[in-house]
Automatic annotation (TrEMBL), chains A, B:
This is Phosphomethylpyrimidine kinase. Residues 354-560 form the Thiaminase-2/PQQC domain. It holds the Pfam family Phos_pyr_kin. One of its GO terms (molecular function) is thiaminase activity. Residues 20-200, 232-322 form the Pyridoxamine kinase/Phosphomethylpyrimidine kinase domain. The lineage of its organism: Eukaryota, Fungi, Dikarya, Basidiomycota, Agaricomycotina. GO terms for cellular component: cytosol. Gene3D superfamilies: 3.40.1190.20, Heme oxygenase-like (1.20.910.10). It comes from Cutaneotrichosporon oleaginosum. One of its GO terms (biological process) is thiamine biosynthetic process.
Length: 563, 563
């Protein structure tokens, strides 16, 4: 039941590329991409650029030997990546040095090469003459290569100008064998084609297609119109994968200037999605198949497309993508050996009345044995009524559960509470209040307020809401029990001759504290599983704070003997 | 009601620092930090290191003029950061060049300086002699400086060896005026002190303290023990902020080797938290106060501490932090002009029976007017019974809502459905089924299955569950209505003389399609507000897929006239 406390290392993805001072492309885009997809990102820098959304203003090429030195630090049996992408490689000398080093490795990471030759803004980032070095020294080592149409031309020594999907596929089929090894993903972003043309072509040629552009939905088209958006374009962009077979990835055509670093992002996403799959398949050990699945390709393209579609306008030229679109705020970190109960701690830290509740004057007087019989009798009789609602709240939770384990756990607590209430009956009997008189007693306002608040949450909320609504009572009484035991040890409370000794021993006893432990473990485990979002955590904090406030009021009601 | 479709640009945070090929420190840690905290990260690189968790194997210093060139690209009225952190500055010449450039700016970003002199692994990253350049050329321009204890010594030209909290505070008080301007955050990580000592000291000296280390909680201590963790250390680490006043930030003492890049991460987090606050205060415009709030400092320290505490073991030496601890997977991206209904689209894309539902043979025959009267009569009578449950589900949703707007919206739909059912009564009357006969008709199994499924979700789930459970019926009928209208236009369906013309016109009519639009907008808006986590989205997808499957079965029941 206890959640995993030792975090699992994420897959490690390396980028070998240039640095973009503007942060939108190069190793910066790659590290943002790897992080967003849940990988650990590292980088070997081949060149620095002084760059912004308008263009590249300067390049500082890193000496090839220092590129290799960076690689050596990583592969020195320390931070060995399971996948790497290669981007801007700056010079033929760097390509040759890289090729020699990568060829010397006994176990190469999965390699994705984005043949970056021209920046989105039009700057030549690699001399065309370097294509020879790429083809001879690097491509034979690479697993996947991702040129766009102009880059495919450079690799082939031609200037292709395809105008139809047929042309693009013919280009891919011509280029692939020339690469001598890697799978080819030819990116069709430069040539949008009509959806109908793609549908017809696929049917005619019997080619497999993965659709990322959703089919037209009439109610959504109507909604777009009503909120004032133009009709969705009937055009799509097609990326062609040749990996033995041929597969088309058909995405929506997004009209935007936020495309700076698109190629970097896609290749980093491909390396990351490969690494994630490999790590799931065999726990990141060597021997993963060196073939990227179509699902990983689909995820990488989808990630990149959403990053383009949700990008805010930044800069005056081609703005960067929104790399963080697939992340949202996680309020409660994973449990760790340093903090095994992050959610419980968070709730307590955000309940301003917690201390006033667990160290209430009622509790202190009870521990010293100086609490008046009348106050205790009033409290215990009202607590009997409260427990009825408390049991019902658990039963309501059980009624909402969708698995037998939860039904059993909550039904068990409802039963436990019903039994616990018998202790209250006995206490009341010792004060001369019969069971009939106890049952006939009206609820004090605070009892109704608290009992029915917990029940309302149980009826209107989900299981997590229920577990949190009942938590303050559960762990607060445990805290009081354990604290009073410490107070006894410190001479600040007494057991000998204390009329409330049984109460004190019950709530510090193994039975009750065992329930507290199970309650904390159940809750922490459920939070790890359900990952409540920030607004949901906010609601849970409110529920816990409110029930803590009402717990404090409950002691006060006892002390004041108020109705 | 429509969610924001044009994303707001995040605050921009620049790092001016070295590159760590291992990805755990330097600009890589800074970019990971800025991204994790929701900022846009860019970087000006001062030096490249070949580095891993065991040490720094090589350094390539970037020429100072190229450092300035990178800065110029950013500040060329393109991607101007609102805050920047300065880390490893490599050489006195770079410091002087940076100082001159930053001094020349008419509007400087908020500057946090982490005086990086020695790496966690012990490598000297800046000659001690460069301290003079820092003090004369850079510190007067800086807003906040964050040395640890040894670095404070280098800045003062001494070798302090504080042993108590008093010593550390005395050190901070001596260093602060020598810096000539910036606020000082002296990091006490090198000297853990006892919690009790801090409590006593604060009380005695009347110093403000922000506690990040939670107070001891008895039930949590008990829980730690039960799951086999050692007792929590009574030691804390204290960071001292001098910014006019003095404030202590008291954090837990985490025993771990995952501390590579801690200083980088904290200073990047401070710059990010400042930028986030400034952007909220004045929409990122100039004129934000150049003073970091204590809440921003608290958030930055907390972020860094959690990154240390939740780090997986990576590498053989001092491993990197877990920069992504405060992010979790966001399945549904923000609505954008390119995709204003991401949640609705996602549900439909993941309901495998969607097409079989909206283009069911029942619907096609109805559109052509060839559907038998008996089939339609059976369907419409059962739909009357279904609508009762459908109305109740909305009422149950209203009963769970915690705001008047939602109560009103759901109660309104319940009312609408009750009215819609009168159309069914009239249809049945036209087939010779009286109201009494209709009411007396038993529910077919599919009617019970579907109606009570929706009701169960409404009773056991939360508002989002309710909205999704009723969605398939709402938007599916709209889709059928609009599709049949298109089919009529294409000659594939007929209105003239079609006995079901009224039905077809009702579901393509303004009244019903208006409800569809409101339903989509309400749902999309609620998803943006509640940000359902991945497990929650998974549950919502299941609900939508199940109700879509049951809708399809409902048409089939009509066609088969089955019970």
């Amino acid at each position: 039941m206890t959640p995993q406390l030792r975090p699992v290392a994420p897959p490690h993805v390396l980028t070998i590329a240039g640095s973009d001072s503007g942060g939108g492309a190069g190793i910066q885009a790659d590290i943002k991409t790897a992080s967003a997809l849940g990988c650990y990102g590292s980088s070997v820098i081949t060149a620095l650029t002084a760059q912004n959304t308008l263009g590249v203003q300067g390049v500082h090429v890193v000496p090839p030997e220092f590129v290799v030195e960076q690689l050596k630090s990583l592969f020195a049996d320390d931070l060995v990546p399971s996948a790497a992408k290669l981007g801007m490689l700056a010079s033929p000398e760097t390509i040759t040095a890289l090729g020699a080093y990568l060829a010397s490795l006994t176990s190469r990471p999965y390699l994705v090469l984005d043949p970056v030759m021209i920046s989105t803004s039009g700057h030549e980032l690699l001399a065309h003459s370097a294509a020879d070095a790429l083809l001879s020294d690097l491509l034979p080592l690479v697993d996947l290569v991702t040129p766009n149409i102009p880059e495919a031309g450079v690799l082939m020594g031609t200037r292709p100008s395809p105008t139809t999907l047929e042309d693009v596929i013919a280009l891919a089929r011509e280029l692939h064998p020339a690469l001598k090894g890697p799978a080819l993903l030819l990116k069709g972003g430069h040539l949008p084609v009509s959806r109908d043309a793609v549908v017809k072509f696929i049917e005619k040629e019997k080619i497999e297609a993965v659709w990322l552009a959703p089919p037209p939905i009439a109610v959504i088209a109507d909604y777009r119109e009503v909120i004032g958006l133009p009709e969705e374009k009937p055009d799509v962009v097609v990326d062609v994968l040749l990996d033995g077979g041929i597969t088309l990835f058909v995405g929506p055509c997004v009209d935007t200037s936020s495309t700076h670093g698109t190629g970097c992002t896609l290749s980093a996403a491909l390396a990351s999605c490969y690494a994630l799959e490999a790590s799931m398949a065999n726990g990141d050990k060597a021997g993963a198949p060196r073939r990227i699945s179509h699902d990983a390709v689909r995820r990488a393209i989808k990630y990149t497309q959403t990053a383009i579609a949700t990008a805010p306008k930044l800069g005056r030229g081609h703005g960067p993508l929104n790399h963080g679109h697939c992340a949202m705020q996680r309020v409660i970190p994973a449990p760790s050996i340093h903090d095994p109960t992050p959610f419980t701690s968070y709730l307590i830290a955000n309940a301003s009345e917690w201390d006033a509740y667990v160290k209430h004057p009622f509790v202190i007087a009870l521990g010293k044995g100086t609490l008046s019989h009348e106050a205790f009798a009033h409290y215990i009789a009202q607590d009997y009524h409260y427990l009825r609602h408390y049991a019902r709240a658990h039963a309501a939770g059980a009624a909402k559960a969708d698995d037998m384990a939860t039904i059993r756990a909550l039904a068990d607590i409802a039963l436990h509470v019903a039994k616990e209430s018998e202790m209250h009956v006995e206490f009341c009997a010792s004060f001369g209040i019969t069971r009939a008189a106890l049952e006939a007693l009206p609820e004090a306002a605070t009892t109704s307020a608290y009992g029915r608040y917990v029940l309302d949450v149980a009826l209107s909320g989900d299981i997590l809401d229920v577990l949190v609504a009942v938590l303050s009572c559960l762990i607060g009484y445990g805290e009081v029990g354990l604290w009073l035991r410490k107070q006894v040890a410190a001479g600040e409370a007494v057991l000998e001759g204390n009329p409330y000794r049984r109460w004190m021993e019950d709530y510090a006893g193994d039975d009750f504290i065992g329930a507290v432990r199970r309650g904390i473990a159940t809750l922490e485990e459920r939070v790890v599983r359900e990952m409540p979002s920030a607004p949901k955590v906010e609601r849970l904090v409110q529920i816990f704070a409110e029930s803590t406030r009402l717990e404090k009021a409950f002691w006060q009601m006892g002390l004041d003997q108020s109705w």
